[in-house]
Amino acid sequence: xxxxxxxxxxxxxxxxxxxxxxxxxxxxxxxxxxxxxxxxxxxxxxxxxxxxxxxxxxxxxxxxxxxxxxxxxxxxxxxxxxxxxxxxxxxxxxxxxxxxxxxxxxxxxxxxxxxxxxxxxxxxxxxxxxxxxxxxxxxxxxxxxxxxxxxxxxxxxxxxxxxxxxxxxxxxxxxxxxxxxxxxxxxxxxxxxxxxxxxxxxxxxxxxxxxxxxxxxxxxxxxxxxxxxxxxxxxxxxxxxxxxxxxxxxxxxxxxxxxxxxxxxxxxxxxxxxxxxxxxxxxx
Length: 284
What we know:
The protein contains two helices and 21 strands. It is mostly beta strands.
């Protein structure tokens, strides 16, 4: 955030102060129920509410009920009212807006992981002060994110039948992706060692050997945030030295999974995915 430079996903231990009296901004959501992968639009307004805007004001997204707790809390996502999550780079020298609309999506300016996992959430506005405290300055609006039905996930092929099953060590791995009927921004392909592979409760991030965004054909995305906003439902992706930060994949057998989640659940696992039944082999 501004003064403490706390990034999204880091716990806030500072004391939260409630807003005083009736002096607070108005917060509204364009929709209270959004599809998984869709954006969330939040409209805010100060005028006529007896409170002046400040550059330290931001809208945070929280799991339902979390902002009412006295313990530490964490935002699932946030944007300053200047429409950026980077205060120093994009907000510091601007005038604080009196009203506006913020859109939480895979596309910049958001630099956190999106979409949110299915569930119930709240959007609230806070003011960050120089002493490290955060004051509530608006009403909180509830909304929900719908999940992807098991029926739809069952129909996702993951890979085209023409995809190769065997590759040489160090050689590019070309996968023919087919994700319909489920296609969202930011979806990605992950490779997991087949030995001991267990997807119960989700995909453990510790088992991911390599990954690649389907839409961008790399793991670096097409946004400054490193996410990939491009929608692609089928086509070739190439896992190679050019598309990966670390290379090469050791010889062995691997499971290939199409992952739709960007955020892990409480068990530190990605909950929405579909794995190919055949798997792949990399030989020396």
